[in-house]
Amino acid sequence: MSAYLSGLLLDLTIGVTMAQAVGVSVLNPHAILDTVGILGAAIAAQAANERVAFLVGAVCASWVWYGLLSTCASALRAWLTPLVRLWIQRGSGLLIFAGVLVLQLV
């Protein structure tokens, strides 16, 4: 694998790539706070005998969701040209803007 950093071509081994992925995901403070805060609060709201099942279900659902998301992104890679992605981003921005306007009017 290769990557560009400030115009320099860097050869990345699979180990370096995996280490970077782990660093970005596991050492991400936002992900840690979300996991502890949101998932922890949801687990605490469950009955004591249902907490492990809830945790397993939440983790499995997360794995399935991100697996499906990455598979679909990989399958659509050829279709998602920079121009298509630009229009998707514009559409997303308009939806967010419309949502803000609706909330301001309520």
Tertiary shape? extended
- Computed structural class: mainly alpha
Q: Give the uncertain stretches in residue-range form.
A: none
Tell how many strands the DSSP assignment holds: 2
Order of helices and strands: EEHHHH
Rounded average pLDDT: 84
Describe this structure in words.
The chain starts with a strand and ends with a helix. Strands 1-2 form a two-stranded antiparallel sheet. 74% of the residues lie in helices and 8% in strands. The chain folds into 3 domains: 42 residues, no CATH class; 31 residues; 27 residues. The chain is mostly helical and 106 residues long. It is extended and about 50 Å long. 0% of the residues are buried. The mean pLDDT is 84.
Set down the secondary structure blueprint.
Blueprint (H helix, E strand, L loop, with lengths): L1 E4 L2 E4 L2 H13 L2 H16 L6 H25 L6 H24 L1
Antiparallel strand pairs: 1-2
Quick description:
With 106 residues, the protein is mainly α. Helices cover 74% and strands 8% of the residues.
Features:
mainly alpha; 74% helix; extended; two-stranded antiparallel ribbon; 4 helices; 2 strands; 106 residues; 3 domains
